[in-house]
Structure formats: C-alpha cells, structure tokens
Specification:
Layout: H1 2-18, H2 31-34, H3 66-75, H4 78-96, H5 98-108, E1 112-116, E2 122-127, H6 130-141, H7 147-150, H8 157-168, H9 176-191, H10 197-203, E3 214-217, H11 227-230, E4 234-239, E5 242-253, E6 259-266, E7 280-286, E8 297-302, E9 313-325, H12 332-335, H13 337-366, E10 370-371, E11 374-375, H14 380-411, H15 417-447, H16 460-467, H17 477-490, H18 494-510, H19 517-536, H20 545-568, H21 571-580, H22 598-608
Parallel strand pairs: 3-6, 4-6
Antiparallel strand pairs: 1-2, 4-5, 5-9, 6-7, 7-9, 8-9, 10-11
Length: 624
C-alpha cells in the first residue's frame, strides 16, 4: 500500500515538474506544442474545460417592454407619444448599458465614513465613488426630477417622469432613493407654497452643477412609522423662523444630500415641548455651511444594511443645526403627507422596475441556457414560470402607471374628485402590494439562473437584497394597510365609493364584450364581496386590514387590466387579464368574518406565544 502511494506521489511530482516553464507568465505559447506532446504531458497545464455558459444580456428597457409601450400609446395623445418615444428609447438603451454599469460600480464600491483625519481632526466625510457622483449628473441632465415641474407634457408630465424612473431604478445603483426624497421635497415646497425658492430651483434643475438632492430625516431611536410619538429632536428658537436643532436621527438615507426636511419639537419660553403628534413641526436645513463644513451635524456611524449598500445611510447627531421652520407650529405630521404620496409612489416604481428587470434578464438567459439537451426557453415548466412572472409584473405596472396618471392630473390642478380619492386610497395599497410582489418575483427570478442566481459576482443576489427594503421603507405592510383604513375613515367612506364606481364602470363596459364576459363576472363578484365585507363587519377592519388591502389590489388591478385589454383588443392583453383573474381576487371574504374576530385574535396570540417566557430569555452576549 505504501509502495502504490509512493508511486502516485512520484508521478504527481513528475507532472508538476514537467509543467514548470522558464517563463510561467507567457504560457499561451505552449498551446500548439502541447498537442504534439505525449499523452502523459498533454495536461501539463491545468484545464477548466471548453464550456463557458453565456451570461444574460440586457435589453433596451423601453423598446423591449411591450406593456409599457402599449399603455403609453393608449393613454397619451399621439403627437405627445411621438415626441417622447425617441427619448424613452434612447434612455432605455442607456439603462441597459452605461447607466447599468455605473450602478454595478456603486455596488462594488459602497460609501464609507472617514470620521477623522490622520491628525485627529473631526471631518465626518462620507466618501462615495465616482459612479455615484455620475449618477447625480445623469439624474439632472435626464430631468428625472425636473420633468413633472417643467410640465412641458402638461398633465402627462408625471407619467413621462415615472416611465423614465421605472427604467432607471434597477440600473441606478440605488440612486433612485435620493431622487425619491428629492421629488418629495420639491412637491412639498410647491404644493404648500413654501418660501424656499432657492431650494426649489436647485431640486428641479437640469444643470448638474446646480442640482441638489434632498434627505428626509424623520426616523429617530424609537424608530417606526409613529413619528408623532418617536420624535425627540428639539428646536430652540433663534429669532424669526430660525432655530437650532438638537437630536439624534437614527436612519437618514442619502446622507450625502445637499438639504433635508426634518421633524422636531419647538421648545417654548418655559423650556418645555408639547408631546404627541401635535408637538411636531417640520424644518428645512442645508446640510453644509457656506464654507463647506457640515452644519453642526456629526455622522455617528454608517448603517450596515442587508441591501442598498450603495446608498449612504447613517446615524446623525444634530448638535445645534441651523434650520428654518417651514410648517405651522405643531403641523409637521400633516405637512409631510404630500411628501409621503411621492415617496411611496417612488417605492412602487422601484418595486415594479426591479420586477421588470429580473423578468427581462431571465427571459434572455433562457435563450442562452441549455438543460437536458434543450434550451430552457423551450421547457414548458420554465416558460410557465416566466409567464406567471410576466403577468404579475404587468399587473403591478398598470397600478403604478394609473397612479402616475392621477398624480399628473393633481400636479396640474385638473384631477377629478374620483381620481383624487383613488389616489389617496390606492397609493398605500400599491406600495404595500408591489413591494411584497417584488420580493417574491425577484426571488423567483434568481431561481431562473440556478446556482448562478446565488453568486454575488453575477450581480443578481444584490437585486434580491435591495428589494427587501421596499416592504419596509416608507412604512411596513401593516402600516400601509392601516393607512388604507385611515383613508376610508377620513373620507367618510367616499374613497371606497370612488373605488366601487371606477371598477363598476369598467365592468359594465367589459360585460358587453363576449371575450371579456366571464372575466368581468369574476371581477364583479370580487367587488361585491369587498363592499359587503366592509359593510357587514366594520368593527373588524383592523384585524382584516392586510387581507382587505390585498383584495383591493387584486380587484383594482384586474379591472385596470380588463380596461386595457378592452381598448387594445390585443390577444396578449386579453390573456393577461384572464390569467390574473385565476387567483383569489378577494381573499378577505374567503374564510368568513370569524377569521378576524376578537376571539380568533386571542387564539392567534396564544399560538404565537406558546411556551414563551420573557423572564427566561437571555440578552445577547456578542456585540457587533
């Protein structure tokens, strides 16, 4: 046994010896001579085999998107569509080429904090890569914020902007996040007629040298969406509208922004502050002083996040920050409501954009990957998966585009009462539904690449890590569901009346078409179930809020897809709405109201906390 082992070792050493060259760097010149060598030396260099899997290619984000083109051509006047189609096509190519490459560079070179110089001077410099800075320049030049404020396309300007952002978001390396808050700040300034002309002109500029981005510093150590109770930052009056802010902001995304809107409690002459939501006011501040130093802001640490690592997010200490009061005292929560509409729409845009991108990559890869002797584009089960992802993406797309249409009408002061109510109701519904759908769709999409979908070098896992923030940012799924309930209560049920009227009108038109008769009947039943559920059990609205929100999303999307199919009369659009309606459109009515009763709630808590003993838990011993 020892002899055989020694023999193998000798042979191995001979092989290693034979592979040694005088010039180990230039080994390509030995390829031709290798074929003439004896068989024992033919593999003197390590070989990896001849097969290399072709990687997925990127499609033009506009010209490859049949549904986006179809919706815009149906919705926009022909002359307007003709005028912007060339720009959308050009930008769609950029999102597949140079912009996408910059986005990947942002992923590879995330921001970091340089807190002090080598000599101990505190600088709190957030260092970002050149690609991140270039994304800011691109955003300005492409008018990604400017478009809806220039309003060259009138009431359709917002739809034009969202179409570009939808293509840009999955390629942007998360630069879409600061753009969301920038758009929210610009909308707040404009809609509330705030006296901030300098800020507004910078936020909406197409000049990269003038363009500003804005932060949105709301979250503090108590965290969560309950900013009314969680805000501890105080504002000390300095005269006029000028204050100094003292506090700790726990989660400040886009910390490298030029300005921000934030919340604080005004200290009265007795040194006291009012608690609760009524004590919170909104402030404007520039992040830097005229000399370029930070505005009495200390960057305590950078957040180590699951995803969105390209985006600088930090904990900040505000130590006498110069700020300007821009809301009525105590009206801070009310003042940010318009901002939330914008940022939640951007959240929806990022969700749907990620879904479209993963579907695009997956379908291209299917034409390049062979398994079991055949391209996987010809494997029925794989095609079924791609088809289901496509239907889900189209459903979420039409919800996004419909909201963009309504917001454009609101921007121009032309929105009807029905559209205004639907915008209020369906914005949190869309944020809730599309974010959840994005996580599921991108996860499914990664499976389409097999093991490569799990390899960081491909750039694919980053897509899943990044979309996981979408159900959390701007309010979790439960917070969105409760906001839907709040919208119904605050409008005294008029929001649901508008919902019923819009869907009912579409159903009545579709029922006249033999091709849509069955589909319209399914949607009609779901609509009836939603209304009867709400009317029969108003006391269970909170426990059923998430299922109710899901039912609104499924049913409203079904109606919008049916309306689209009616107008286009395209077989693909007819198939999409039929497939959409194969799901349970109204899950809230499926199991009866006892599912949401107080008794069931007590049982569910008992289930969740079975054998839990708070006094028997252990604090973490390892501190990261």
């Amino acid at each position: 046994m020892f002899g055989r082992s020694f023999y193998k070792t000798t042979k191995l050493s001979q092989c290693c010896f034979k592979s040694t060259t005088k010039n180990p760097v230039d080994i390509s010149s030995h390829n031709d001579s290798a074929s003439k060598m004896p068989s024992s030396t033919r593999f003197s260099r390590a070989k990896v085999g001849s097969f290399i899997q072709e990687e997925p290619h990127h499609e033009n984000a506009f010209s490859s998107d049949a549904f986006l083109q179809s919706y815009l051509k149906r919705t926009l006047p022909k002359d307007l569509m003709d005028s912007i189609e060339l720009d959308l096509t050009r930008f769609g190519e950029r999102c597949a080429t140079d912009i996408y490459a910059l986005g990947q560079e942002c992923e590879v070179n995330p921001p970091y904090l340089r807190q002090t110089t080598a000599w101990g001077k505190r600088v709190d410099q957030i260092v970002t890569c050149q690609a991140w800075k270039t994304q800011k320049e691109i955003s300005a030049k492409e008018g990604l914020i400017a478009i809806p404020y220039e309003r060259a396309e009138g009431e359709f300007s917002r739809l034009y902007q969202i179409s570009k952002l939808y293509m840009y978001s999955p390629a942007s390396g998360l630069y879409s996040c600061p753009l969301a808050m920038t758009d929210g700040a610009a909308k707040t300034i404009q809609s509330q007629n705030l006296n901030l002309p300098e800020a507004f002109s910078h936020l909406t500029s197409r000049d990269p040298q003038k363009f500003w981005t804005s932060g949105q510093w709301m979250t503090e150590k108590r965290g969560g969406s309950d900013v009314g109770q969680g805000t501890e930052t105080v504002a000390v009056h300095q005269g006029g509208n000028h204050y100094k802010l003292y506090g700790y902001k726990w989660f400040s995304s886009a910390t490298d922004s030029d300005m921000t809107l934030t919340l604080a409690r005004v200290v009265d002459t007795m040194g006291e502050v009012e608690g609760g939501s009524k004590g919170v006011s909104m402030f404007f501040l520039k992040t830097r002083k005229p000399d370029g130093t930070l505005n009495n802001i200390e960057v305590v640490k950078m957040k180590n996040k699951l995803g969105t690592r390209q985006l600088p997010t930090a904990e900040l200490l505000l130590d006498g920050v110069d700020a300007e009061l821009i809301s009525q005292p105590g009206r801070g929560i009310a003042s940010i409501s318009g901002m939330l509409t914008i940022t939640r729409l951007h959240n929806t845009t990022s969700s749907v954009g990620a879904m479209r991108k993963i579907v695009s990559l997956a379908r291209d890869y299917a034409t390049r990957r062979t398994a079991f002797g055949e391209k996987i584009e010809n494997q029925p089960l794989h095609i079924q998966t791609l088809s289901r992802m496509e239907v889900e993406t189209r459903g979420c797309s039409i919800l996004l585009l419909d909201l963009a249409r309504q917001l454009g009408l609101q921007d121009c002061g032309q929105i009807s009462d029905m559209d205004s109510l639907l915008l209020r109701l369906m914005t949190p519904v869309a944020k809730f539904y599309t974010a959840k759908s994005a996580v599921a769709t991108v996860s499914e999409g990664l499976e389409c690449f097999g093991g490569q979908g799990y390899i960081e070098d491909t750039g694919l896992p980053g897509m899943l890590r990044d979309v996981q923030v979408l159900p959390i940012w701007e309010g979790t799924s439960s917070v969105m569901s409760l906001d839907v309930v709040r919208a119904i209560h605050k409008t005294k049920g008029e929001a649901m009346t508008a919902f019923h009227s819009r869907v009912k009108n579409i159903i009545e038109l579709a029922s006249k078409s033999s091709a849509l008769e069955k589909t319209s009947s399914i949607i009609s039943k779901s609509l009836s179930d939603i209304i009867s559920t709400l009317q029969s059990s108003p006391e269970t609205v909170q426990p059923m809020a998430r299922d109710f929100c899901l039912s609104l999303a499924h049913t409203y999307i079904a109606a919008l897809l049916m309306e689209h199919a009616m107008d286009t009369n395209c077989p693909m659009d007819l198939m999409v709405v039929e497939k959409w309606c194969q799901r349970e459109l109204c899950p809230v009515a499926k199991y009866g109201m006892e599912r949401y009763s107080r008794e069931m709630g007590d049982k569910e808590k008992e289930l969740a906390y079975q054998l839990y003993d708070k006094d028997a838990t252990f604090p973490p011993e390892y501190i990261r």
